[in-house]
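The instructor's notes for this session suggest beginning with a concrete chain rather than abstract definitions. Hand out the sequence below and ask the class to guess, before any prediction is shown, which regions might be ordered.
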Amino acid sequence: MTGRDERRILELYEKGFLTKEEAISCYSNLGSEGCPLSTEDEQNSRWNRRFLPNFKIFSSQKWMEYYDLPLLSSFFLTIRDGQVYFKRGDQEGIQLEILSWDGQEPQQLPNVEVDENQLRVHLFGKSQVTVYLPECWLSILELKVGQASVNLEYAPFEDITIESSSDKNNRIS
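After discussion, reveal the predicted structure:
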């Protein structure tokens, strides 16, 4: 099997035309060794263990998640209410602190996803986020802030997009 065929099978799988089992079957029928989809679960489990947050509980009403992530080129943040701070970090990767308040429904808990050199953070309840960035240029920053205020003390991004979906005056500094 050529590299072109392998890429095409992966492309069809990613677009949803093939199920995982069908894609693995295509690999085995064409005589390819080492289907990348068969080890996907192992890679995901290693990835998730590596980037699980550290939790700190300050009181019965507040808790913090801390992520230490590798250098990623794009950062997408969606927050409905709260505060966002971008600061200069002292490490090569990205550090992310999320301070949340108790009493949030399970569907309102923070959602942090890392995929293909992109960091996506979705915060549905009131939160305070501090992002420590390395001293190098990054590609894209996209913020959807709802009613949150944003402090761009340090923003080494080539392209910055900020959307507000509320009538409240957001404070962006």
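Then share the key points. The beta strands are 54-57, 62-69, 74-88, 94-101, 111-115, 118-133, 138-144, 149-152, 157-163. The longest helix spans residues 3-14.
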